[in-house]
Known about the structure:
Elements: H1 14-17, H2 38-72, H3 78-100, H4 110-138
Helix pairs in contact: 2-3, 2-4, 3-4
Amino acid sequence: MFLDNPLGVGGNNFQKSFHRYQPEEMSRGMWNRVAHSLWFTLIPELGVVGIILFFALLWYNLKDIFHLSELTKGKGGDARYLHQLSLACIATLAGFFASATFLSVLYYAHYWYLTGLIVAAERISRCYSYENMKAASEN
C-alpha cells in the first residue's frame, strides 16, 4: 500500500484500502480490518511526510526527556521530582512503543498526552534552571 501511495492513503484510511491488497485465494473479506501495528498503520496512511513528522516529534520528545534528566540529575527539591518524571516518561515511551508494535494506536490520545507532558516538564525545567542561575548570580 505504501509503495503504491508514497504520500499515504490518508488518516484512518488503511481499513478502507486494505481489501485491495487481499490475495485472490482468501475467502474471508479484509474490508475494515486494522493493521494491529502502529508502524504498519503509520507508514501507509501518512506516507513519507507523516513518517518524517512522526519521527521528528519522537526525536524532540527523547531529546527533551534526556535533557531534563541530565539537567535535574542529583539535585533536590523540585528538580528531583522533574528527574523522576523524566525517568517515568522514558519508561512510558518504551512501554507504549513496545505495545504499539502489536496494536493500532496511532490515533489514540496516549502518545499525544505524553508529548504534552514532556513539553510542559521541559518548559518548567527551563524556568527552574533560569531561577537557579539567577539566584546563584545574585549571591
